[in-house]
Amino acid sequence: MSDAKLDLNGEQYELPITVGSEGEVGIDISALRNQSGAITYDPGYGNTGSCASSITFIDGEKGILRYRGYPIEVLAESCRFTEVIYLLINGELPTETQYRGFRESLTRHSLIHEDMKKFFEGYAITAHPMAILSSMISVLSSYYPEGQDEAARELNIIRLLAKAKTIAAFSYKKSIGQPFVYPNNSLSYCENFLHMMFAVPAEAYEVPEVLDDALNLLLVLHADHEQNCSTSTVRMVGSSDANIFASISAGINALWGPLHGGANQKVIEMLERIRQDGSDYKKYVDMAKDKDSDFRLMGFGHRVYKNFDPRARLLKKSADKVLAQLGVTDPLLEIAKNLEEVALEDDYFVERKLYPNVDFYSGIIYRAMGIPTNMFTVMFALGRLPGWVAHWMEMRDDPKGKIHRPRQIYTGETERAFVPIESR
Ligand code: CMC
Fold first, then answer.
1. Annotated catalytic residue, options 302, 347, 391, 398
2. How many whole angstroms from 102 Cα to the centroid of ligand 1?
3. 268, 303, 304, 305, best to mutate for ligand 1 pocket (most atoms within 8 Å of CB)
4. Where are the domains of the chain?
5. For 44-77, how does the pLDDT look when each residue is reduced to its tens digit (9 = 90+)?
6. Could you please report the per-residue DSSP string of 143-187?
7. Which of 123, 369, 394, 412 is within CB 3.0–4.6 Å of 127 for a Cys-Cys bond?
8. Which option is the CATH number for 72-256+373-397: 1.10.580.10, 2.40.50.140, 1.20.1740.10, 1.10.10.10?
9. Tell me: the pLDDT tens digits for 404-418?
10. Max Cα separation, the chain?
11. 241 an active-site residue?
């Protein structure tokens, strides 16, 4: 493909083209400022490729999502989450021997240092589990300093992946005042998390298969999503050579916002509000359209998907199945389906291509599993962890990598004279 041409103030500039493996075209403007003095302006980075990446491909128009080339539908149907973790961070699916070794190392590193339990005592009982998760992940760096070689780096990545679920489950136990339940090395990744969440020392607990499968699906569907807000944050922070724990902790905080991963909690709060208000769907759809109101349909719309979110489709199907298997009837599922129907027939949502996203149905499944609403975004973080790690590693290993440092268009005052305080 020939270079792009830019005509600026009567001068012509040639801008090289870079083409991805799925035919995506990028205009390389990295030399533009040096050549012309101009920068590009793209608030929210909606049209900016910040890196080249071989991890995840999304075609938002066609509703395609693939990790390392494998369609999300196939992985969701056939893979355990630990296989997906391996795939994302190593680039290939594991052989049986590799998988056994990988699972084993994730299991062996599940315990957190006993001293870390003391930190939990300091959090208020009302602390949001996302605050606990992000700070405790950061604290891991004080126990496991960054190593100088490849093996030390890999070990810290395994520690992070293994211990995050323990920290997440401990944050829940702290919030309900129950003693922590330690990981059990005979259990799989998902089973272990559910065991640490729901077992109580006084009673025997066996993880129900339906919960194990539901959690596995949810984690697989959340495992990566290319350059979203939290992943870009992990890359941004990591680009300063910050350690893996600090970088991931920053990503967790970025995920917390209600426009990103925090939406799953907000969806349930919205559905509950609609239920208490007599299920008047049209009223809420009208409120979401009203530009004078700051109300939005949570779990609707996406920066990239403009047709459907394949993860939402899979979760909608799964919600029916999981609730039936658990024998749970949740009025919020019916409300969600009706709200979706009313919104999708409304011109406002049709014209703007706003569809349910991954957060719309995930909360209903978490609720049925017994996971409390304020833990939903923690669940998203556990799922997204391997994606963040894969991007951090790719960014660190990129020979063209440099510290992320965008420019700006300054719109403030031009130089002015200082006036002493007594004369102002
Ligand atoms: N309800 C009502 N109107 C909406 C919504 C919504 N949920 N989402 C977008 N719009 C409107 C928006 O007001 C704008 O209208 P107009 O063109 O008249 O100004 C238009 O649609 C385009 O929206 P935008 O905010 O410019 O789009 P964006 O790409 O910047 O934002 C989004 C994407 C996901 C932040 C947004 O759709 C939203 O706020 N959704 C609700 C929160 C949510 O569900 N977030 C989870 C996203 S998926 C999980 C993840 O984070 O990965």
1. 302
2. 38
3. 303
4. 4-59, 72-256+373-397, 263-369
5. 999 999 999 999 999 999 999 999 999 999 999 9
6. HSPPPSSHHHHHHHHHHHHHHHHHHHHHHHHHHHTPPP----TTS
7. 123
8. 1.10.580.10
9. 999 999 999 999 999
10. 79
11. no
